[in-house]
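Please go through the sequence line and token line underneath and see whether the fold suits the sequence. See right below:
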Amino acid sequence: MAKRLDFTGKQQATIEDFAPAPVGSSSVAVETMYSLISTGTEGIVYNRLFGKGTHWDNWVTYPFYPGYATVGQVLDVGADVESLAVGDMVASLHPHASYHVAFADEFHRVPSDVPIKHATWIAFTRVAFVGTRAAGYELGGDVLIIGAGPVGQMAVRWANTCGLSTIIVVDRVQGRLDMAVKGGATHLIAEPVDRCREAVTSGNKGALPRIVMDTTGNARVFESALGLARDRGRVVLLGDTGTPSEQRLTSDVLRRGLTIVGAHGAHLADEESGHRVSELFLGLVRSGRFDLSDLITHEFLPEDYDAAYNLINTRREETMGVLFDWTHS
């Protein structure tokens, strides 16, 4: 019998047995090895940290099956499947569960020379890629990335890959800033975002950056982000907040002609474009241009979900990649 994680209410969860669907002609069966917790999204959902009437409120109904970053091994393939074979390692955007049966095009094959735990970052790198595209980076340009959590780390790496000369990262946790350096950050600021303007301009030759990217999902950061973009600059909202009513516009928008753009993983037009991003990401990992070393900070057995979410709730600043290990469950 397969097992999956189920949120049954606010701060309530369980591991339940379930019977997977049979493998159809276009489907594959995959045994999960690891799944990566989205500390931002799952923290909001687990604690119901969202306003009434928001899209979160409409989305989170019970039972709720969290997670969207899994890797595992193909155990069976349908008669019409040619893209995958038994024994392949694959990554997907499926929830925390020991076993998945889904259409073959929902899985991406992971090359043998990519560490399987590194492949769990595919989901987060796809989110950050959408932010990269929304930013409209220019070779040699500059960016301020607010927040060095999981999505922020991927945003730093995409900015570096795109050839930006100045990548400033703001986060109050020094350990996260150290991880950002490995990803290509050029300047680090361990100060509150509402008090870092001088440090930002100091790291950018006296000027504010053209692009400011907010990856935090903290509604109150938005106002500061607007004030840190240069005139006619662009502010990219990459972190989804549960309380959008608390995001306040300032006079910066009109007075200084700012552009605000939202970016979300769902903006990848179709599964094919998602696969292209995943292939690009895995190629960058293989070449060493995407350094993912040391990003996995904690591992839990799925049945220890209480400890995992308690860690995220009480000491989130100590975490980065938090994995569920299904191989020993």
